[in-house]
Amino acid sequence: MLLLKEFGTSGPELGVTEASRRLGLHKSTVSRLLGTLEGGGFVEQVSETGRYRLGLQLASLAGLAVTQLDLSTAARPYLLGLAEQSEETVTLSVLDGEEAVNIDQVPGPHPVKHLGWIGRRLPLHASAAGRPLLASLPAEQLEEWLQRPLQSYTEETVVGPGALRRELQELLAKGYVIVSGEYEPGLTAVGAPVYDYRQEIVASITLSGPTFRLRAERLEAAARLTKATAERISARLGHTARQARREGHARSRPRAQARSARHWNTAPRDSRPSSPRAGAVGPANGEAKT
Q1: Sheet (strand 187-195) strand order
Q2: Which of 15, 133, 268, 269 qualifies as a FRET site for 280, CA 20 to 30 Å off?
């Protein structure tokens, strides 16, 4: 098992000598282990270099494991942690047709808060839940989609194809997007993409609240926390950031062509410190009931 894990830390290929040095094992032992793994299809030898890379049998097993893991179940503890630490509403959404649909939500504790609902549908271009999913479309479909006349819900709604392309490019580069007042006046939300083991965007998570409460440093901290939470969920689904960087987001970037603040804890509920508010950023104003 330790030998297989070395492929995840040292790059796509691994030689006998390098593996021997990393594991502190004799080269003959490593060679024998690699031969056994090769026989089972877990690694394969690259004829041009004589080095080894992971085999398709591992990909098959990884796909089977991930398909058995329900998205909502995998994300739920992280949604709870994000909502508790940020004290804002957190939502998990997926692409359904040409809209984003909410499949799970943890409401914030404040009387003044964003109240969506499970099953609610949102436009892809004008919502923090939708934009990461819009970035997941194949290049041709995205270009066709951007050429349509898009509905402007408020004066802030971005509808121009050029502006939306730039928004999507920035989203993929930064790992999150901030949408303020584009779908609902007075509502600000941070959205981040969730990737699976195929390095594809399969969902988005959003942190949303009233604009008067999500300003300046608090909004910046919320963006970083939302991104970190999405990365944790992605890792739970088998996504590896190292592989994504190595592939240059080959499946995502073409589709998108078409200050300092206190850190919040993003660990699941059962692994956070005993004080749940220890990481909360600043006072949250606005206790008036809507």
Answers
A1: 121-123, 99-106, 89-96, 201-210, 187-195, 177-180
A2: 133
